[in-house]
């Protein structure tokens, strides 16, 4: 069933197909998901003080505005992460900005945090019946100077605190100018200390602790990974998500679309994302939550990422190519691994 739907959608521009799918999921969540909704895998796990229905979640970026939570709940995800959302609405980068590479199971995007703003997202969350674990991924507006990036992250943190099960700080998109500079040791320490102090104050104010994670790029060397792991531990961050998209083009030398600027996701990213995750696990130890994302497209990929050190997994591009069956396949593989 999904193969037929994908065949029709893949005849359209990638971003247009994405918008049409989300619109259907938003307007008619039960009807739109009916052909694909299977039996959700019940494999609960307790992490971050939260109960995840299973270890496979939806990665940020697919539902930037939190429009389709009721639909995701019907497709078997153990948790859902929405965003990236910014304090103010913004259109993102000029179109075209999203490109499929079907022969490689990949996508290149340079969307640039296009979203309707944090207030719109929170309104959609409030309207939803979704009651599972909800991550909200926050970023900075494109016109906020990098030296004032913390101001935007603080706004986002304050606004989403009560609605989010956990918050992800996105400092790793390649499509917002200079954003990855925040992964440097000193800027990262300064940002996370400010966010940690604010999180402590919000927990006291609202009587609710909301875990905070940081999403990192795969395009980091050993020295940068050392610094990221060290700062994450020092500042009391609850976990790391590895990884975002890559600016590299592994295995795409003969692919014309590889010349497009933006972040690459999907199968070509898998090995790089897995290496980054494994390297982080060696640095942070066994008692620190890591979320693996990037190029997971089947059960074997899910098992490999778990073996590399992931406590939880997220899918995005694999979900676009494989459809909802991927969610149950990966969740069942991890449940069987634990049995």
Structure report:
- This protein has 339 residues and is α/β, with parallel strands linked by helices.
- The chain has one domain (2-338): TIM Barrel (Alpha-Beta Barrel).
- Helices cover 40% and strands 17% of the residues.
- It is built from twelve helices and 13 strands.
- It has helices at 2-9, 14-27, 29-33, 69-74, 118-127, 149-160, 185-206, 222-235, 270-284, 299-307, 317-322, 325-338, and strands at residues 45-47, 50-52, 56-58, 79-85, 98-101, 106-109, 134-138, 166-170, 212-216, 239-242, 263-266, 289-293, 312-315.
- The strands form three sheets. It has an eight-stranded parallel beta barrel, surrounded by four helices.
- The chain is globular and about 50 Å long.
Largest sheet, spatial ordering of strands: 3-4-7-8-9-10-12-13
Oligomer: single chain
Second rung of CATH, namely the architecture: Alpha-Beta Barrel
Low-confidence stretches: none
Broad shape: globular
């Amino acid at each position: 069933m999904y193969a037929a739907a994908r065949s029709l959608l893949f005849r359209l521009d990638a971003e247009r197909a994405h918008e049409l799918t989300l619109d259907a999921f938003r307007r008619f969540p039960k009807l739109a998901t009916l052909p694909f909704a299977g039996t959700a895998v019940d494999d609960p796990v307790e992490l971050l003080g939260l109960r995840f229905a299973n270890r496979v979640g939806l990665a940020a970026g697919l539902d930037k505005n939190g429009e389709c939570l009721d639909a995701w709940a019907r497709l078997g995800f153990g948790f859902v992460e929405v965003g990236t959302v910014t304090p103010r609405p913004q259109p993102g980068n000029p179109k075209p900005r999203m490109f499929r590479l079907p022969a490689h199971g990949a996508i290149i995007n340079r969307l640039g945090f296009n979203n309707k703003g944090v207030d719109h997202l929170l309104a959609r969350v409030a309207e939803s019946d979704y009651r599972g674990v909800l991550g909200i991924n926050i970023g900075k507006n494109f016109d906020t100077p990098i030296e004032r990036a913390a101001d935007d992250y603080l706004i986002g943190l304050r606004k989403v605190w009560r609605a989010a099960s956990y918050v992800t700080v996105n400092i790793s998109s390649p499509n917002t100018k200079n954003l990855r500079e925040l992964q440097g040791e000193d800027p990262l320490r300064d940002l996370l200390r400010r966010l940690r102090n604010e999180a402590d104050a919000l927990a006291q104010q609202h009587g609710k602790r909301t875990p905070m994670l940081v999403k990192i790029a795969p395009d980091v060397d050993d020295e940068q990974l050392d610094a990221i792991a060290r700062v994450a531990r020092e500042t009391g961050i609850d976990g790391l998500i590895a990884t975002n998209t890559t600016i590299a083009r592994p295995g795409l030398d003969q692919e014309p679309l590889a010349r497009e600027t933006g972040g690459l996701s999907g199968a070509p990213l898998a090995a790089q994302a897995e290496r980054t995750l494994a390297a982080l696990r060696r640095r942070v130890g066994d008692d620190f939550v890591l979320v693996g994302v990037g190029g997971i497209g089947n059960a074997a990929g899910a098992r490999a990422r778990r073996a590399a050190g992931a406590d939880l997994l997220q899918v995005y591009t694999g979900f676009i190519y494989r459809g909802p069956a991927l969610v149950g396949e990966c969740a069942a593989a991890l449940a069987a691994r634990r049995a």
